[in-house]
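Section 5: illustrative case.
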């Protein structure tokens, strides 16, 4: 059974999600990849504000392909999340609600998820064309010079993800291996 959440979402809602849950996200999420994360880190180091309010928001690690005529965005598949691991604990400590990507996370990120009651979702890699159909609008809000790595504000409806690491640190990548081994 799919769970439905509205984005941005509160820590109380994150606490109800469990590793392995299928979730449909509706609302506003943001994209940011390696270069955007580096710029946000540099801005924070200079004492500047981030170009978006990170509190309770979801960051999708994705850089889209060009949009086809009549579509708000091109293929929109997830990027490997571990590339953002060196920046993520700080963003979690600033209140980031969740992340969407693919692949494993470092122990520092898992610790940050637990410490802040956040969630790590996975989107299906290789399904970018299908995922883009759940995106209603896309607007570059920062770092336009980065092209596909610019920060975008997305409006999504029933965007499908799976909870990989829940707010208690339960990790689907680990539990699935144990379950399969039985």
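Designed sequence:
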């Amino acid at each position: 059974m799919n769970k439905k959440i509205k984005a941005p979402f509160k820590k109380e809602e994150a606490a109800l999600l469990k590793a392995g849950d299928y979730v449909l996200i509706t609302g506003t999420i943001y994209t940011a990849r390696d270069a955007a994360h580096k710029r946000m880190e540099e801005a924070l180091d200079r004492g500047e504000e981030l170009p978006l309010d990170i509190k309770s928001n979801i960051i999708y690690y994705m850089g889209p392909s060009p949009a086809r005529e009549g579509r708000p965005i091109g293929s929109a598949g997830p990027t490997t999340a571990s590339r953002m691991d060196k920046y993520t604990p700080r963003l979690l400590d600033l209140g980031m609600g969740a992340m969407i990507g693919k692949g494993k996370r470092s122990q520092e990120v898992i610790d940050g998820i637990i410490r802040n009651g956040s969630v790590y979702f996975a989107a299906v890699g290789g399904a970018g064309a299908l995922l883009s159909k759940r995106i209603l609008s896309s607007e570059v809000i920062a770092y336009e010079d980065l092209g596909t790595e610019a920060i975008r504000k997305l409006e999504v409806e029933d965007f499908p993800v799976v909870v990989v690491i829940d707010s208690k640190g339960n990790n689907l990548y680990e539990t699935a291996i144990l379950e399969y081994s039985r």
